[in-house]
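Lab notebook, entry 218. We have the chain sequence and a SMILES string for NAI, and the next step in the workflow is to get a structural model of the bound complex before anyone spends time on docking refinements. Request logged below.

Task: model protein plus NAI, output structure tokens.
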Amino acid sequence: MIPLFHDFTDATVLIFGGGPVGARKARRFAREARVVVVSPAFVETDFGDSELVRAAPDPGEVDGWLERHEPALVVAATDDEAVNDAIVDAAQARNVLVNRADRAGGREPGSVVVPATVEERPVTVAIGTGGTAPALSKYLRKDLEETLAGAGEMATLLGELRRELKARSVPQHRRRQLVTSVVEDSTVWTALRTGTTKPRQVIDDVIADELVSGGESP
Ligand SMILES: C[C@@]1(CC(=O)O)c2cc3[nH]c(cc4nc(cc5[nH]c(cc(n2)[C@H]1CCC(=O)O)[C@@](C)(CC(=O)O)[C@@H]5CCC(=O)O)C(CC(=O)O)=C4CCC(=O)O)c(CCC(=O)O)c3CC(=O)O
Ligand SMILES: NC(=O)C1=CN([C@@H]2O[C@H](COP(=O)(O)OP(=O)(O)OC[C@H]3O[C@@H](n4cnc5c(N)ncnc54)[C@H](O)[C@@H]3O)[C@@H](O)[C@H]2O)C=CC1
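Result returned:
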């Protein structure tokens, strides 16, 4: 499987099944997409910002739900294998992406797996185990949350630094040296994590040094 980042803004994600798994996927996708969850019962209370529809479609009715909602992705998270089978068939027939929660292997074309994710905006890390050990994905996600502390601010800082160096027509090889030296600087990481220095200060210092030294290596 090849990991890709998919933008679901303005798209619909249709989820069948309102148990713990359906709720977890709903919370995940509702951060970006319009999410509709179809289930005869909603045991969980937190579905994020999703629309909940009480219904128990049988296999023959599943396709009608896809026709009405025109989703970009369908999630099969019911405990009924025949319904999950019908969801995969309907999604394939309509060329819609499908995530099946009750299978680890033997996947069909167009099927996607939901990874564990760490988000330090705008940094995103996705973890998968090819379906072998989801509990390990979860464990590694928790571990990485600590490792990535400050990465979002670092990304924002470097983005601004690149833009400002470009605007000052600093040559490409020199921009690369400067950006790399900031990202590898442990004192900058510590400053971002502890909040002792603001990203703006780091950018101003790099640019001031550059203007004084006229582009000599640090
Ligand atoms: C294939 C996949 C399909 C998909 O759902 O996309 C899938 C399938 C299955 N999961 C099962 C079990 C568990 N899943 C979790 C947790 C997560 N599962 C997620 C993804 C995936 N799960 C995809 C593969 C990802 C990969 O490659 O690693 C995560 C990462 C993302 C998310 O769901 O949001 C989320 C952690 C999120 C986080 O915390 O960050 C836990 C842990 C817990 O609940 O505490 C358990 C119990 C422990 C265990 O069994 O490991 C079962 C057996 C059901 C049974 O036995 O009946 C199946 C079906 C099967 O294996 O047949
Ligand atoms: N991918 C993952 O991370 C995991 C997957 N699983 C698998 O995913 C499935 C769902 O897990 P849970 O949420 O824990 O199960 P659950 O049994 O608590 O929830 C299933 C939900 O589906 C609903 N449902 C039943 N028939 C339906 C229909 N025709 N249409 C719409 N909804 C219907 C039920 O009312 C219930 O709310 C399980 O069968 C299990 O095999 C389990 C744990 C983790």
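Notes for the group: The chain has three domains: 12-114, 116-148, 151-213. Worth checking against the assay data. The beta strands are 12-16, 34-39, 51-54, 73-76, 97-100, 116-120, 123-127.
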